[in-house]
Amino acid sequence: MVMSIESKRLILVLGDQLTPRRGALAEAEPGRDVIVMAEVAEEANYVRHNQHKIALIFSAMRHFCAELREAGFEVIYVPYETGLPSLYAAVMLALEQCDAGKVLCTEAGEYRLQAAIGSWNLPCDFEWVKDDSFLVDHSAFNEWADGRKTFRMEYFYREVRRTYQLLLQSDGSPEGDRWNFDAENREGWRGKAEVPEPPLLEPDAITAEVISLVQSKFPDNPGQLEHFQFATTRQGAEKQFRWFLEYCLPSFGRFQDALAEASPWLFHARISMYLNIGLLEPLAVCRSVEEEYRAGKCDLAAAEGFIRQVAGWREYVRGMYWLQMPDYANLNRLDAVAPLPDFFWTGETDMRCLSRAIGQSLDLGYAHHIQRLMVIGNFCLLTGIDIGQVCDWYLGVYVDAFEWVELPNTLGMALHADGGIMASKPYAASGKYIQRQGDHCKQCRYSPAKVTGDDACPYNSLYWRFLHKHSAQWDLNPRMKLSLRNWQRKPEEEQVAILEWAETVTAQLQS
């Protein structure tokens, strides 16, 4: 039987949609459907992506292509070396080769890409397929958000727990009679528990070829690929997750906010990049962590803290992104316009915590949430660095960064540029917070106990200046009034000295 052009379909699979039987692949059939995947300059260069990020996605795409071909699908794969500029060009090339009557694509994760693909002028029909790889789809989130004056993640998270029966007792109440154990998950590490050394991953032939390609084609991008340690297959990602369950989960909750000189990883799972490109699925990892808790292999605070990040925060951030876009990307409620300092591309600053966090981010494409929020993000917030430049930096530097997750976390949480849509107060802190959470201060030339002077921690004077500069806004914020009053109670001459020193610090850091 000869298949008609009308019945033959071309399925475009994007680089963050590498899950079989999801979205447009859910009902795909070998023999009827042709799949197109492409590594193109437009996607690889819209920000200055970390080499680790490009290598992970390209290698994972090539492995997924092999998986689909083994399942019997015809896959038109366009490698980066081909030189095609865009996904549109790749789809047009594929249509010439397969004569399909319709193009299908799972909803894009980023507004930018969804708008671009939606504007294509194709010679055949086009259809979006709902992205079912998340726990909460767009319509369900919008229904939850409808009519609310504020969007508290905590209430959303409870609904997700109820819907998927995660960490619930037989009567439907939360395990441990509390929904949230965050207060138990803020301990500084300081050698209190041995950090397990993750097993080294040897790149296979596909990954080695991709690493060579990325080093050749993106030589000026951040990243040290001799340290590439990311899984690029579903089996590899699952193996890394299982290692986390056995060796890290028991200490994960307790130390998840800790900062440490000795380890860039501590007890974190490092699976967000696999979730975000489709190598792992959110419900499955949450169920696995709950099983560990019920088997007595971790405490409730660890299990709940993990599930809150995946089933709560990750889903909430994605919902908020699509609810607020496209206007959200242009918000700048604190009028932050200062240029991004050059050391954000080198890590060369005397501020030890900032140097370590930025250097690690550049070299490895990874930093955990407290490094991103309370070290790097806090610095950007206090110094008023340009929102677009900071967001582009975060989007490019981190392996797990796609705009749906990066923008709300950076613009909203870290920079408070949305005026409180994502967070009811800015995540601003002095050097004392960083000292409490980690051990960087011991090796820093600056003292967190001092506010002014050459050896004073820059976060301190910058923090007080931040409160002063935006005092009119914080006076209306119940969660900021105490901090603001502490500033206002200082003698005027002390305030003047602090503000003058903050200007000196800013000039030095941006020189």
TrEMBL record:
<dbReference type="InterPro" id="IPR052551">
    <property type="entry name" value="UV-DNA_repair_photolyase"/>
</dbReference>
<dbReference type="Pfam" id="PF04244">
    <property type="entry name" value="DPRP"/>
</dbReference>
<dbReference type="InterPro" id="IPR036134">
    <property type="entry name" value="Crypto/Photolyase_FAD-like_sf"/>
</dbReference>
<protein>
    <submittedName>
        <fullName>Cryptochrome/photolyase family protein</fullName>
    </submittedName>
</protein>
<dbReference type="InterPro" id="IPR014729">
    <property type="entry name" value="Rossmann-like_a/b/a_fold"/>
</dbReference>
<dbReference type="InterPro" id="IPR007357">
    <property type="entry name" value="PhrB-like"/>
</dbReference>
